[in-house]
Design goal:
mainly alpha; 67 residues
């Protein structure tokens, strides 16, 4: 099992990447340029995956604190 420092580091990385994807998607929608819907769908899927991983790590960290 990974220690809490590694989980905290991964959590920070995933949150940063999730935020960057969110900003990128917002810029794509607000842009006057045509949007590649397939690319946007892929970015949204990655964003959802990151959110799931963030929730899992947060849950693991809470379980470690309680135990």
């Amino acid at each position: 099992m990974e220690d809490q420092e590694e989980l905290q580091q991964k959590l920070a990385e995933y949150r940063s990447e999730h935020s960057a994807l969110d900003d990128m998607l917002d810029r794509m929608v607000a842009s006057d340029q045509p949007v590649n819907l397939l690319h946007m769908q892929q970015l949204k899927k990655k964003k959802l995956w990151l959110k799931d991983m963030i929730n899992k790590i947060e849950s693991d960290l809470i379980d470690d604190i309680i135990a």
